């Protein structure tokens, strides 16, 4: 019985061989190849997010959970290709898909032993099997594999076939392709491989599950060493190099795939129109250094705390690093939440904008005096953060020390509506209470903004008051937005913040920064800039639980300064604009020497009747070509208490005792900010374009 069974099996094998040989006849083979449909030559590949230089930040598996990263021959170390051909298919570039010598040997061994002893498959045949998923241990499946291999050779180049192998070769579990395997087993791209690494990548696909290094490291190493030995015999590797490679340890674990800028990458990859490869403006090295910084800092701050860091080039609007949390996989710290995009109370971080508006409107000067004493503002009574009051200080010192009462004094004059309007010019849409209109409390954090919002506002100050949108995709630059502050006011704010006290006396050369702490110690902030970059830091708990003692200057500022250090040497801050009023307190115009509250019910402040805000006025300036200055501009005023002090672009241009009009000759065409200050300190301002 056993003999008859063996005879039938050999007969079947002989018939199959006869069929294959018949197909080898030129006419029959040509017809069969032409009638063989090709499988999908573009299997789905992992979506990739890469940095500005093409470095992989984060891949995503395909729909069935397979890691299959696109890679071509030029992306892989040539050593791997050399070993692959030496071990698998030495005549790859000579045959037409089927190596008849190898096939003959394999069929002869099968006839002798009644089973498959050696494969005889070419790389092209392996690609055919992997793409069609044929059962090549059946004769019908083997015949189809041969036909499909010939069809692939007819319609694809050798490099295209090799690229398909590099893409779909199995490496155990849910890993396919050389690039995914190199990242999984070596933690690196396959562009540079050691002989031992290249040999292991050649060996695994022959029996991917049995040779998985993370499960069967001994088998994997033995298979690798066989590849090295055969490569040495074939002359693909010098014998001494092969011997040295066999002494190298084989990996016994699996590395996680890269996950830099995890939150940003995830958000962009899940857009409906997301492309297969998303190229970000992120710099991978900077991102990695700052993620390590955030992870270390969060551990120092305590359990369940997290840290977010955002870095942008304020000259272009490009985001260079976006750290959404200390660890995206740390559930205890709610690391899955991107804290660069969450709305939180900004604490004192909006004070620079308040002070800048007061400078622009002629309400204050950095050397003006202002009172820091317990005060009430229509029922709102801000308190000092540390419970102490400094009395009378300069405006410069008030901002550097982040005093609350002076900030609210200035906000009362500037107006909450104006502050919000300037924020919106920069594209910031703060979260406000639906119950009541915004009041003075917004100056101390009574609204919601994101870390990205604060970085955008600081970038505008760093750019001389001109806001620009931030962008995270390479090839795009930020779009110019509205002017947040005048150039002079922005520089004055920058100059003040560059002298702010640092934590524990740390150096902050060429860095202008502001810290903030939200009510109840829920959020600690630090936002700063030099001549090139702006960095924002948030620290706290993602669930908004208070963290006793969490203060911006102590928790967030050190992280921000360390982030600047990891970027390299700081760049010089923006130079002062021309015609800036740079005098001591005693030399200021009288209304500016001491900032006092001027809100008195029933006493109207000054109002500029002409020209209206936003007007374009033709004074003949555009036609002068440097000869004269054209006509003088007439500014007319109503209400207010004389005498009046007049400013143009932040500089005093005159003082009138009783007249409610002023004539002045502009320096040239362009925008002009005209401000008038009355005896009580109330102000009015318009911006016009002169031509």
Automatic annotation (TrEMBL):
<dbReference type="InterPro" id="IPR050396">
    <property type="entry name" value="Glycosyltr_51/Transpeptidase"/>
</dbReference>
<feature type="domain" description="Glycosyl transferase family 51">
    <location>
        <begin position="70"/>
        <end position="230"/>
    </location>
</feature>
<feature type="domain" description="Penicillin-binding C-terminal">
    <location>
        <begin position="600"/>
        <end position="688"/>
    </location>
</feature>
<comment type="similarity">
    <text>In the C-terminal section; belongs to the transpeptidase family.</text>
</comment>
<keyword id="KW-0511">Multifunctional enzyme</keyword>
<keyword id="KW-0808">Transferase</keyword>
<dbReference type="Pfam" id="PF00912">
    <property type="entry name" value="Transgly"/>
</dbReference>
<dbReference type="InterPro" id="IPR011815">
    <property type="entry name" value="PBP_1c"/>
</dbReference>
<keyword id="KW-0121">Carboxypeptidase</keyword>
<keyword id="KW-0328">Glycosyltransferase</keyword>
<comment type="similarity">
    <text>In the N-terminal section; belongs to the glycosyltransferase 51 family.</text>
</comment>
<keyword id="KW-0645">Protease</keyword>
<dbReference type="GO" id="GO:0016757">
    <property type="term" value="F:glycosyltransferase activity"/>
</dbReference>
<feature type="domain" description="Penicillin-binding protein transpeptidase">
    <location>
        <begin position="308"/>
        <end position="526"/>
    </location>
</feature>
<dbReference type="Pfam" id="PF06832">
    <property type="entry name" value="BiPBP_C"/>
</dbReference>
<dbReference type="InterPro" id="IPR023346">
    <property type="entry name" value="Lysozyme-like_dom_sf"/>
</dbReference>
<dbReference type="InterPro" id="IPR036950">
    <property type="entry name" value="PBP_transglycosylase"/>
</dbReference>
<dbReference type="InterPro" id="IPR009647">
    <property type="entry name" value="PBP_C"/>
</dbReference>
<dbReference type="Pfam" id="PF00905">
    <property type="entry name" value="Transpeptidase"/>
</dbReference>
<dbReference type="InterPro" id="IPR012338">
    <property type="entry name" value="Beta-lactam/transpept-like"/>
</dbReference>
<dbReference type="InterPro" id="IPR001264">
    <property type="entry name" value="Glyco_trans_51"/>
</dbReference>
<dbReference type="InterPro" id="IPR001460">
    <property type="entry name" value="PCN-bd_Tpept"/>
</dbReference>
<protein>
    <recommendedName>
        <fullName>peptidoglycan glycosyltransferase</fullName>
        <ecNumber>2.4.99.28</ecNumber>
    </recommendedName>
</protein>
<keyword id="KW-0378">Hydrolase</keyword>
<comment type="pathway">
    <text>Cell wall biogenesis; peptidoglycan biosynthesis.</text>
</comment>
